[in-house]
Structures are given as structure tokens and as C-alpha cells.
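Before relying on records like the one below, remember that each one covers exactly one chain. Contacts with other chains, cofactors or solvent are not represented anywhere in the record.
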Amino acid sequence: MPELKKKLTLYGLTMIAVGSCIGSGIFVTPASIVSTLPHHGWVLIVWALGGLIALTGALTFAELGGLFPKAGGVYVFLKEAYGRLTGFLYGWVILLVINTGALAALGLAFADYMTFFIPDLGQGGKVGLAAVTILGLTAINITGVSISQIFANTFTSLKLLAIAGIIVAGIAYFVLTSPADIQLNLALGQEQPEGLMGALLLALIGVLWSFGGWHHASYLAGEAIDAPRTVPRAMILGALIVTLTYVLVNLAYMLLLPLPEIAGTERVAGDAVMRLVPYGGKLVAVIIAISIFGTIGIYTMTAPRIYYAMARDGIFFKQLAEVHPRFRTPVNAMVIQAVWAVLLLLFWGTFYKLITYVTFMDIAFMTMAGVSVIIFRQKLKDTERPYKVVAYPVVPLIFISISGAFVISTIIQQPTESGAALILLALGVLAYQFFEKQHRKEGGEGEKS
């Protein structure tokens, strides 16, 4: 059977980690975050908090990535720590909820920004454009990981340059505007938010949606050059770059617009740049469309490696373990993901419901993966580690505690979306039993988990 090619470099994996994070979130979610936290300082703090979660998570996962440099990343960490059932459930929700939900949301956001140029697109047209985009980029990524790496490098570099332009615009406005105007801007919305802790946790939904993705580099470990060292470095560099970018661009938004205007717009970047450039809305629409397009391309590439790894372990459809004989990519796994993402587009609701549905389950499993570092420190004491998390166990515990608080808060504050995700998880247990039974019939060795 053909194997996956090891072609991904440190730069390529870092751009995948960065590009997986920077999609639509930083351009779409600031309005809901400012509405929840109408205070300049707390807005910056919640974005910095998201960066702290991402960085402590990346430092924690760096040890796991060095310990298990295999295709599938987080799936492998969970399977090795908790057993095949937990690993399967992660892959199950990645396919049915997390990655496909993210793809659907990104596709809708991409189509929404295209209405700048196609105003009569309509809701049906938006769904159709989103579907074509997801299917088309999947087809491109099937042609080989080298093509995927070039794609990720190009589009991630473009989006970083574009965001740097917005940051420069914010600084320029600060310099060109009188101090009195700046003080007026900063004075609006400075009242301390009521129920601060609950507001912070609620605001984290949009923040973590925007930060989600740095761990996608781990999914591609099976195709990375010198994976035990390359994968950890890529995740850490990716988290650092994204954190700095997000804090600075939110500062730029607040230098360009009063908080009430940020809270009242779904196109904050466009409105902000229009303060300096008359046609800023359309200019930023192009930038955001490029950014989202690049992230969809990366998502269609990364997560299918999980379904591929599951199939090779005998706990998913065996056809998903097939590698294209010419392109050496998991073609069937990539196709099934694209098809399900399109189905979600047709049957799911609003953008905000999508990101709540996705983020809740993602962070729940990421928290469990964070705990696995502590488990492996006891379980695999004598195993060589190319990278060890700094300040152990403080760094993993920061990631675990903040992420765990977010999961609990979401269950309490968003019961409909989190309840739907939990039902789907329960169905996954039944699906696992089916696949294990099939695996045993075919002569495979099952594991109790």
C-alpha cells in the first residue's frame, strides 16, 4: 500500500499552524466580543488570554508531538493516553462536528464577504459558493502535500501582510488624529462590565474560535521532515505569531473605531480601514476573502489525516486508509470530509451557532489531550523526549484549567449547542462498538478502553 510522503518543512508547518488560526475569526468575532465586554482594557485582556491558552497549549502539545510523531496528531495523543474509544470519539467529532463545522462556517463567511462584489448572491447563492469552494480546494489538496505546502505558504503570507497593513493604518490614525479625539474614542465603553467572569468566559467563545487551529500542524506529523523536532517548533511558533497578530490588530481596531461602532458591525476591519481609505470596505473584503480561502484550503488538507490514522488502526471505514497511488494523499478521507461539510452547510443554522457547536467539543478534547502530558510523564517515564514542556507542570495546568473552565461555562450558558454535541458524542460510542466488532471479525486485535 502506498505511504504518505515526508515533504513538509518547519516553515511550511508553521505557516499551516498560523494559517489554520487566522481565517475569518479575527475579522468577524470582534463585534460579539466587544458587545459582551464593552471595555478597551478587558477586550485586549481576553484576546491576550486566548493567546495564553494557545501558547500554553502549544508548549504542552509540543512535548506530545515529539513523543508521538505520527499522522493524526491529537487523535494519537488521546488514543495512547486513554485508549482506542477516546481516540475514536475525537476523530468522530472532528469529522462530524469540529473540522467540518469549521469548514461550513468558513465557507459561509467567505461567501458573505463575496457579496461586496456579487450583491445579489442571496442565501442560496452563498451556500452554493461555500460548497463549491470547499469541494474545489479539497480537489487541489488531493494532488499532493507539496502543492498543499505551497498553497499554505502563499495564502498565509498574504494574510499576515494584509493584517500588518491594518495595524499600520491604526497607528497612522492615532498619529494623525488629535489627542482629544483619541481620548473620546477610548472613553466610550469604559464602564466595568457586570458579571465580569461570566462575560470573559462567554467572550472566549469567539476568541478561541479565532485562535483554534495551531494544533493542525500535529495532524501532519506523518508527512513532516524530522517530525519529532519540526512539529513541536511549528506549533509553538504558530501560537506566538498568532497571539502577537491578534492583540495588535484589535488594538488597531480600537484606535480606528469607538467601541459602540465595533460592537455594531459585522465587518469591523472594513469599517476601520474606511476611516483612512474611501474604498477600504472593498479592499478589506478582498483581504478577508483571501484569508478565509487560505484557511479553508488548510482545513481540507489537515484533518483527513486523522480519519486516515483511525482507518489504519481498524476503528473506522477501512477505505479511508487508502492513499492515492500517484499523489500519495489520503484521498477517500479528504472526500468524505468535504461531502459532510457541504451537508452541514445545508442543514445547520447561523454562523454564531456553528462556532459555538464547533468550539465547545474542540476545547473539551484539547483539555483532555493537555491532561495526557501528565499521564505520560508517569506512564512513559523513561521514554526519550525530543522536547519537554517548560515549567512543568505549571504550563500544562494553566492550559488545562482555563480550557476546562471554558467548557463548563459553555455547557451552562449554551445548553442547546453543547447538548447537541454531547448527543453526537454518545452516538459515537455506538459507532465505535460497530467498527471494533468489524475489526475483530476481520482478524484485527481489539483493545479494551
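Residues 218 and 314 are 21 Å apart (CA to CA).
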